[in-house]
Amino acid sequence: MENLAGLVVFARVVEAQSFSEAGRRLGMSPSVVSKQVARLERSLGARLLNRTTRNLSVTEVGAAVYEHCARISREAEEIDLAVAQLHAAPRGRLKVAAPANFGMLHLAPLVAGFLAEHAEISVELTLKDRIAVDLADDGLDCAFVIAHGPAQNVVARRLAPIRWVLCAAPAYLDRRGRPQAVADITAHNCLVYPELLSAGAWRFRCGSSEEVPEVHGNFRANSSLAVRGAAVAGLGLAVLPTFIVGADLREGRLELLLPECRPFHESALEAIYLPGRPLPAKLTRFLDYCEAHFGPTPYWDDGV
Question: Is 39 exposed, middle or buried (0-12, 13-18, 19+ CB in 10 A)?
């Protein structure tokens, strides 16, 4: 197809139902618009429009051609937008949501550094215990999620791995002993984050085998920070992400247990956003900044 410009012009004529209005939208004279459509008809060897002095109507062939022209027109607009955004300075407001604990510990400090470097951008950060994927309804540019599987109906950009560990305070372990195998966990007081228990976080992979100990304990909380606090206080064993307990492990408040057996709860930090047009420069810059800051080996895993 040599007459790509004619396809776009034809789509505008059908949408405007007028050569003159289509010309106004395209910045062309009505006569140029008419000539473009006539050239397209000759190229295709078919009449696309029925013309009268009062109105225009689309022929059967024209209706079929329009469906393809409309898609080509949209894609052409997206190319223009993508190029413009590559050259545009990032500016405007970003609306972002994130899990409450991760957001408070890691994302809010990162946003402060990002804003210090990008004076033309503002960030509206919403922290939630759970992030529902309703980006359009909430008017969000993106949401950060701790993902345990493929995202549905959204685009997901992986920013960092999320690793889980079995840990406890040295004082507790001195009293109750250190588990030497996964089976020993059943004899300990276990601090449970119920959502992780139902998701199988207290299943362990040891080499090629899987082990599932019975978990008993006197404390449950729907907050990983609350479970972390109970563990640091010496109440029992806990399975927690290193973005929560990395500093505790480095500084000796908690001790890593059974390092050869990893909790069976693979997950990653992802930024999700709606598919469609190219990302605005402000969001691209923010996600690039996050990925560079967190990286494939996040700072919270240093020394763990």
Answer: middle
